[in-house]
Amino acid sequence: MEQKGDGCDDPSAEAPQPARTGTPAEFTASLRALRLWSGLTYRQLEARAGARSDTLPASTIATTLGRVTLPREQFVDAFTRACGLSDEDVREWREARRRIATTGPASATADSDDSPAAPPVGAPARIPRWRRAAGLLGAAGIGVVGTLGVTSLLHASPTPDTLPETAVAGLRMPAVGSWARIHPARTPELCLTEGRDRSGRYATAVAAQRLCTKEALPQVFLEPLSGNAVQIQWHHPKHGIGCLTVLTDGPGRDLIEPRDGCADTDPAQQFRLELLGPAAAARFRIRPAVTGQCLGLRGQDTQDGAEVVHGRCSGAPDQDFLIALTPPPPPPSAADSTRPPR
């Protein structure tokens, strides 16, 4: 394998192997592992692809890697080259994709080369993928261990501690990003995760505080941007990647929802993390770039299920959050690996 991208400093680590994949979902999970192996952010991959005259918008990468269907061959070529693989290795990934496309069920290869490409950076976000929050929250068959299955594919890959740190004050986070849990500082037994608008005015999934152990939660991934800003991604075991997005109008105004149209140029999906107190406390104020205001809890509520909203930075305790970086999620369970694609 060719030496990995600039984001990692251990070129001896073995890259994920496409020959080990047998289904569209496994192939896409292996591409996600390859991205972590490369040590490159979505924006760095976009730039590297552009230097090779390939078109690979960061939003296309996020959308494609969030699916369980087989990516388009053009995407596989551009993505693997951008990750730093040699021409021979790129060919192996292409052949693995063709093998799966010709042997797997037709319903599992929806992203054929004749299908439309994902929208470019800056395109309007599509309707949220997670349409019915209540139904998702009650899906007992979805285990949190089924989020990505990246760990089993990263044979001998470096731990997050071997990656360079990014410029987010108070978080020792790799440049490629990190898995994390976000807790309200007043109620650390709760997590910022998937909930619903208790007023009933907005029907889709929204961000809320819920017991960390109560439901099958989406895994949180922080994608570094610049100036202490991050994109907050939710990796759902069934619905893929959704990026938290601030709603500024309509029936969901002031709420935060996950959208599958991820674009790191969208200020509604950019959140600046402001450190409060010593770095060891990992205590932050979270400020959406689109408004410059602060995230907090509706009505300063401390109850399980309270919605996350954005509003005036008041210094109230409901606007303080704890952020804990976590290891990658474990491999999927047998039940998850056999679940048909959406």
From TrEMBL:
Q: Which UniProt keywords apply?
A: Membrane, Transmembrane, Transmembrane helix
Query: Which spans are transmembrane here?
Result: 133-154
Stretch list, region Disordered: 1-23, 102-124
Gene3D superfamilies recorded for this chain? 2.80.10.50
The organism's superkingdom is given as Bacteria
Q: What is this protein called?
A: XRE family transcriptional regulator
Gene source species: Streptomyces cremeus
Taxonomic lineage of the native organism: Bacteria, Bacillati, Actinomycetota, Actinomycetes, Kitasatosporales
